[in-house]
Predict the 3D structure of the following.
Amino acid sequence: MEDPAATIQAEERTYCQDTCAPLKAAARAGTLDLLAWGHDLYPGRSFEKHMVPEVRSVGTWNAPRKQDWGMDWHRNTGLEFGYVERGKLGFALETDSWLLHTGTLTLTRPFQRHRLGHPGIEASTYHWLLLDVGATGPQSEWHWPEWLVCSATDLQRFAALMQSHETPVWHGNAEVARCFSRIRAALLLPEPEQVAARLKLHINELVVGVLDLLDQQEHASQALPGAYRTVELFLHHLTGHLEQPWTLNSMAEHCNLGRSQFSHYCLSITNMTPIDHLNHQRLNLARQLLDQYLELSITEISNRCGFNSSQYFANSFKAREGCTPSEYRKRRFGGLSGRVPTL
């Protein structure tokens, strides 16, 4: 949810006011149920300016079927919490993308470029909270709302954990699910003052719950068995060897593990099955090659990325990007030819 009140200059582009029009239109058309509160032009009911001004937007949607819209690339000036209660949802941040499943938590730092949709919104129940932490840039210091009762040490720890982890995708737990459920219940209260008061309470609970979750998952990663670290190292170097004809068996054998054990560790590390993660990385590479090397044919790119056929590559690319590789290149560069400078 991009801050409608903000104009952000980044990467020689200006990200201007956004009204979250696709989400509002879907709610008006009745293709999903929307429950939301916020400030300025965000969807749902509006708070008065003095009421929890740090809560830029908070809400839940229930999409009973796949939607023909998505939230395109945008940046927030605040910290965004997202949680998939049911279904699945496409999510991308910078150059990486995920298909989120039930119980997945996302944490997007201020000014990180991201989008929701694959490219359309899948059938899902999704919660979000966009919280202003006083950030003035990607590396600036955070200033939490005064009504957060966490200790200064805890809040500094939260910000440090967020800055030290590259992944925005986490495995949620029962406490995080309960926090979002309580926030949703608060949004149903009839009076704005009641909503604002309950939100302060439940956002405090959410911040503590998420901090505990981050701590637990960090401590778990520090005490991981050797096999886990072997898989982690293998996946890190996999991006340099995507042209090889990897299978689940060959990847597991490379790590001297059985299929089930390798799959378990891969899912824990990436939130994807091994084959899904392999295809995810191959498609990332394909998009880079399409952007940077116009002299390469689609077949050459398919081979370099390790796809066993150009048709399978085209189908996989279209499933994720919403268009074939040829269409993608045509939309971006038209009739240009030759090497394109690295972006």
User: Anything to note?
Assistant: Residues 34 and 61 are 5 Å apart (CA to CA). The longest strand covers residues 79-93.
